[in-house]
Design goal:
Number of strands: 8
Distance between the termini: 85 Å
Strand content: 5-15%
Mean pLDDT: 83
Order of helices and strands: HEHHEEEEHHEHHEHEH
Structural class: alpha+beta
Low-confidence stretches: 1-24, 27-41
Helix content: 55-70%
Number of helices: 9
Length: 420
Amino acid sequence: MALINPIICPKRPFYTWSVWFVALTLTFALASAKVQAQESSNPNLRFSLSGAIEFALEQNVSVENARLDEQAANLKVREITSVGFPQISATYGVNDNFIIQKVIVPDGSIFNPEIPKGQPLALQFQPRYGGNAAVTVRQLLFDGSYLVGLQAVKTYRDLAAKNREMTRTQVVEQIKKAYYGALVSFERLRTLDGALLRTEQSLAELQTLNKEGFAEQLDVDRLRVQHNNLRAQREKVAAVCEISLNLLKFQMGYPVAQSIELSDSLSVLVNLRALPLESGFDIRKRPEMQLLMLQQTGLNLEIKSLKSGYLPSLALQAQRGALAGSNTFSQVRDPGGSWFAYGSVGLGLNSNVFDSFTKKYKIQQKKVELSKSLNLTDQFRQAAWMEEAHAITQLRNQIRALEVQEENLRLSRQILSVTQ
């Protein structure tokens, strides 16, 4: 056998193998780190009712929008309060009067004796290039609408906070309904699975008896029909379970494509006998009622603000600036050229004497809105009372039905023990 020439097939140096080993190690490390990051980014797939509510309050779109609305309300409050702070403005401008407007004097002989008496004369008093630079400071001293706006700041902020609270309450209610609905669907599925198992066992025993001549074929067919009906019903309930889980994930803000499991059970969460059966809830604690009351407070403040618009407003204004004028542009462009300073301080009183009854009609519109809000409050009070009474009646009926079903279950177990 011929030996391989080391010149034709050289050996790889040791550092080359080391580089390849380090590269492979880093590749596997980065891949495993990416997988771990993806796994850690996914939330826990098992949720209790409290965990689902906590997740929804962080991820639900409605809750997030309510939080953004509250943030926008706080920014609006800052906008309202900033009106009472000093307002500073600055202006600067340079003009080229390429056609200078002249002043007409009826009798030009006053300025030029050579002109016949009574003949008009056009005089030029303005240079071709002009400039103006000024800084103005304005401070509001009194404005009735602004004072009412400061009173409405707390109401405006409370209105946004109450709206967020009501949104959170509605989301919690939706999560509970979806969670309980999913639990009920899975409980029905487990019941059907047990019924199917018992039916399959009975069907197998009955088929054996039929083969041996101890049972009629008609009985076998009847039991097979019952078994097929149970299978069809199970498929429907399984679809309902999937829909219930998707609804829960949607309400939670959880990715619908990912799987989820429920860790709580109906026996742990639901205790009908522990629920109150008497009416004693204070409707003033309902977020909807509190929101309506805040809306009425806001409407009263809007009416008060419109009425205060009849009062004059007072402001202090100070101005400091300089004017420039020359027939040479360099004199206007240069800050040290033909510039002449000026300044002024004054008070300004602004009063709307007659607005063609605009404010009057606006006030009447707000009063109509206030009356509608009062009507909605009475309507909600009646609806809440009916809702509470209906819920208590349903709860009592369900407790009675539960007691009947528990008695039937006890009797069924006795019959089963006797037949066995």
